[in-house]
């Protein structure tokens, strides 16, 4: 808007771009439930150029099979601590990385849970995680930055916004470990201990729901 661009539907390319942007706004705001004034202004700016049939088709797409598989793994490995749920899903292919966030979205519907974190090793190079929360007191951006801190270059390993966040930590030389089972045990223990420390509980203080 500030750059002087116009989306008035005069050509197919602009219709596709505005439709994609509108879908992004809808999905990031949980279908406008968490929308701000900026989101509504952006939607108004795009509205005349949106292909409503395409937007409907994109919004109704089914959940990929790999995401369903990841969700099943996340449920089997869930670790409930008070109103938090953590789940490490193991090794995930690069192309299935988005499934981590979708798992977190699904698990947040569990009764008694207001914050979910799902994480895994993506592509054998990074620990990727997604946080989702319904809590009115938890700030995902601050929470994740407090837990993981910064890289040696001064860049935070993660961050977030009102109701969601994410993190990505490079494995570095440990990604070359040939014993994947042992590597995962080390990763999970380290990540879980950071979470437990953040929420102020001991590892053995509360029974784990697997």
Which structural traits does this protein have?
210 residues, alpha+beta, Diaminopimelate Epimerase, Chain A, domain 1, six-stranded mixed β-sheet, 7 helices, 6 strands, 41% helix, 18% strand, disordered C terminus
Question: What would you note in describing this structure?
Answer:
The structure is a single chain. With 210 residues, the protein is an alpha+beta fold. It folds into two domains: 12-59, no CATH class; 65-199, Diaminopimelate Epimerase, Chain A, domain 1, CATH 3.10.310.30. Helix content is 41%, strand content 18%. Strand 3 (115-122) and strand 4 form a beta hairpin. Helix 1 packs antiparallel against helix 2 and helix 1 packs across helix 3. It starts with 11 loop residues before the first helix and ends in an 11-residue tail after the last helix. The model is unreliable at 204-210 (pLDDT under 50).
């Amino acid at each position: 808007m500030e750059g002087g661009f116009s989306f008035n539907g005069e050509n197919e390319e602009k219709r596709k771009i505005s439709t994609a942007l509108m879908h992004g706004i809808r999905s990031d705001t949980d279908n406008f439930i968490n929308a701000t004034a900026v989101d509504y202004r952006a939607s108004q700016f795009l509205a005349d150029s949106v292909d409503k049939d395409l937007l409907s088709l994109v919004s109704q797409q089914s959940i990929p099979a790999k995401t369903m598989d990841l969700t099943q793994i996340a449920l089997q490995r869930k670790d409930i601590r008070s109103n938090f749920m953590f789940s490490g899903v193991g090794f995930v292919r690069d192309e299935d990385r988005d499934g981590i966030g979708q798992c977190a979205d699904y698990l947040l519907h569990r009764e008694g849970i207001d914050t979910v974190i799902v994480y895994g090793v993506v592509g054998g190079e990074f620990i990727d995680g997604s946080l989702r929360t319904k809590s009115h007191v938890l700030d995902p951006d601050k929470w994740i930055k407090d837990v993981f801190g910064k890289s040696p270059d001064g860049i935070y390993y993660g961050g977030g916004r009102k109701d969601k966040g994410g993190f990505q930590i490079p494995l570095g030389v440990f990604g070359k470990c040939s014993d994947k089972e042992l590597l995962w045990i080390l990763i999970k223990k380290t990540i879980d201990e950071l979470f437990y420390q953040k929420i102020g509980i001991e590892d053995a203080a509360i029974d784990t729901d697997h």
